Amino acid sequence: MFCPGIMERCLGGSWSGGITVKDGEIYDPVTNQWTKLPGALVRGAITQDVAADKRDNHHWFFGWRDNSIFQAGPSKQMNWYSASDSGSVQTAGTRDTEDAMCGIFVMYDALRGKIITAGGSPNYHDNAANKRANHITISAPGTAPIVERLPDMAYPRSFSNAVVLPDGKVLITGGQTFARAFTDENSVFVPELFDPSNMTFRQLTPMKTPRNYHSTSLLLPDARVFTAGGGLCHDIANTCPGTNSNHPDGEIFSPPYLFNPDGSDAQRPTIAALSSDTSADGYTVRAGGTLTVSIDQQQQGLTFAMLRVGSNTHSVNTDQRRVPLEDIRQSGSQYGLALPSDNGIMIPGDWYLFVISAQGTPSIARTITVVL
């Protein structure tokens, strides 16, 4: 996962180098070197999985301020990691749940350190999933997070995926009520939408295809969600438990904000022009910089958000996050948007800029690269 500066950090994992010691390392793309962080111990972040090679898998990491990383799971114990000097780890308390391997985790409001976690199972394989959800608020690195139990999801889910949407809601798709890789058994077809305004989950239109182990979901620049895959069991001995669970296809989910109450298409605002204080075409900007956005026609009640382009595997998407832009200067149909100045919030990389109407309908996004 990406650290607040230009570094990339690695912790845990299996398949090579043994299964017992996977403490932190940090990669510097300038020198093209990995450096061990002997103080960034993986021990506090492991689960109690019955399989030793699964205990340090798929960490829920959030790059944060002052070169810190918050680990929200899947172990019930949470931790603060630092990539400074030789690295360090500090316990951050526990969530009100069991270990939750292959659960979901999303930072839906990075300005305020707001995170939702849900689902998962104590063991990677052959274990009942849970439907518990928690809301976590982080602030200064090293301080205790605020952890609040949310209402349960409608369905227990393991191997599901979550995508933060432009309006701050979180879409949860797929998964199984009983975790068993490479099968379609106990599939959950009904997506759920978490609404942070009332801290509730809403069930939506079912999917057509099981999306379980090895599935993926990503936000598209048109504010729809691409969900695909599942299975991909490569087994020359033909011992895969579910030979029909490979799904080399995808579906596109259109969230409710794209429709009027009568089912017709809602009107989107349109970004007519974009520039920044870094580039005239608006393709790049720095944390603390300014974007100038022209809308096709003057509208009341517009809001703005930047969502970092995601990358997903095994229910893990440490790249995605949402930053609402609230420091706004308006002149007619032109808006000046000031970005947060902290690279722990505006992590370098590619982002989508959305304009959202007063009715909650997003524009087609413009893609912007946050640079150092």
Task: Give the SSE layout.
Blueprint: E1 8-10, E2 25-28, E3 33-36, E4 61-64, E5 68-71, E6 77-82, E7 88-94, E8 104-109, E9 114-118, E10 127-128, E11 133-137, E12 146-150, E13 161-164, E14 170-173, E15 178-179, E16 192-195, E17 200-203, E18 215-219, E19 225-229, E20 250-253, E21 271-276, E22 284-286, E23 290-295, E24 303-308, E25 322-325, E26 327-331, E27 334-338, E28 349-356, E29 366-371
Parallel strand pairs: 22-29
Antiparallel strand pairs: 1-2, 2-3, 4-5, 5-6, 6-7, 8-9, 9-11, 10-15, 11-12, 13-14, 14-16, 16-17, 18-19, 19-20, 21-23, 23-27, 24-25, 24-28, 26-27, 28-29
Give an overview of the whole structure.
The protein has 372 residues and is mainly β. It has a domain of 101 residues: Sandwich (Immunoglobulin-like), CATH 2.60.40.10. It has no helices and 29 strands. The radius of gyration is 21 Å and the shape is globular.
Helix and strand sequence: EEEEEEEEEEEEEEEEEEEEEEEEEEEEE
Q: CATH superfamily assignment of the domain at 271-371?
A: Immunoglobulins
Give the helix proportion (percent range). under 10%
Helix/strand/pairing category: mainly beta
What would you call the shape?
globular
Low-confidence stretches: none
Short description:
The chain has strands spanning 8-10, 25-28, 33-36, 61-64, 68-71, 77-82, 88-94, 104-109, 114-118, 127-128, 133-137, 146-150, 161-164, 170-173, 178-179, 192-195, 200-203, 215-219, 225-229, 250-253, 271-276, 284-286, 290-295, 303-308, 322-325, 327-331, 334-338, 349-356, 366-371. The chain is an all-beta fold.
